[in-house]
Amino acid sequence: MGLLNFEGVKIDNAPEEVIPKCPYCRKDLETIWIKTKGIGIVEQKQLIMCPHCKSFLGFGAFSV
Ligand SMILES: [Zn+2]
To answer: The whole model's pTM is what?
Structure first.
């Protein structure tokens, strides 16, 4: 996943109350599901999933 480049676009912080939407089912992601793959501390990948449609949204590194 590369960084997005919005050249010439003003970047602003989203308001605190804004909830991201799932790009697949368009539902609010007030909760996301995390599925941790792999055992051990070094090779731990977390899959981020939409709890509504169970779509894979990306990888994350959360401490739950
Ligand atoms: Zn979804």
So the answer is: 0.66
